[in-house]
Amino acid sequence: METRAPFVIVGAFVLAAIVAVFGFVYWLQNTGGLGPRTSYRVQFEGSVPGLLVGAAVLFNGIRVGEVSELGLAPDNPRGVHATISVASTTPVRADTKVGLEFQGLTGVPVIALEGGLMVAGAGAVPTLIAEPGAGQGMTQAARDALRKVDSVLSENSGALKDTIANFKVFSEGLARNTGKLDGIVAGLERMTGVTAPPPKITYDLRALQNPGPVTKTVSAPWAIPEPTAVAMLETQRFLFSPAQDYPGFAEAMWADSLPKLLQARLIESFENYDLAHAPQRTLDVGQSEFQLLIDIRRFRILVDTKPAAEIALSAKLVDRNGKVVASKLFQASEPFDHITPPDAAAAFSESFGRIAKEMIGWTVQAL
User: Fold this and answer.
1) Which residues face 254 on adjacent strands?
2) Residue 355 CB-density burial (10 A; 0-12 exposed, 13-18 middle, 19+ buried)
3) Does domain 201-366 have CATH number 3.40.50.10610?
4) Where in the chain are the domains?
5) CA pair distance 273, 353, nearest whole angstrom
6) The overall pTM is greater than 0.70
7) Using CA atoms, how far apart are residues 206 and 204, in angstroms rounded to an integer?
8) What pLDDT does residue 122 have?
């Protein structure tokens, strides 16, 4: 015969489990278990959007209790009364600050308590007064701020229109008297001796235009990397030997730094000789069979006797394994009459043209 004892045991176990779950949830919600509690009344002036019974109460950011009651103030249509139940060990004082915070992405409201020095009186439940605007969210605060700005603009619309009109008249006056203002500024510059720096004048190096007939071509892919040079030669300035200052050269500059400028004009000179088999920059090709490595030895204006533009380039042809196939020093000098930037730039182009022509013939024969 079957007995009913197992059913009684199972039922008792289920009831015990339910009670345990409810007790655990109650313990989590109250963060203090079944310990002693103290109740306080909180008075809000204004709305408390989203605040519910059971909402958390934080003291200095730590949860100490929850909201036990919530209702409207019978004698104040704008007031809201709330009763909070917190752990008895919470140091709530009569001057404790009370506010409403919105936590998380959903903006769940909680009552936040902070600070306080005075000891709360015994007896009746003390009433804590929330700070003005404690229940105001960010959206409402932004609306109030915009409303105040709109009020200020409305009250001062006439003055703003007059100010804008005055700015318009002032700008029109400036436009009509631009020439006079330029004259005044020029007069002040002459009087104070302060003048604007003169503009820079850029000079270019001319590539070899007529290298001559193509007697031999370079069939293998090859490249000319950017030439190497000491720091003094990595510049756009005209260099002198010995170093001196000459009128006009402070404002004169090459179109690019000397290594980059020489690389571009050498490649252009080889293109003028044989465009189909001309070298490329190293960055333009993945792996080249040969490279023409250039080192700038000299690129200067000699002023010992008659001025002359001097260029000296050291060249090495290396294969893909780094083996030197051929090497040579190319140098040329071109005199000129007057030490001026245009004459110097023209002399450098002549010197470079002779070096480029000699380098083209040497390279195609070596490769």
Assistant:
1) 203
2) buried
3) yes
4) 31-136, 201-366
5) 13
6) no
7) 6
8) 46
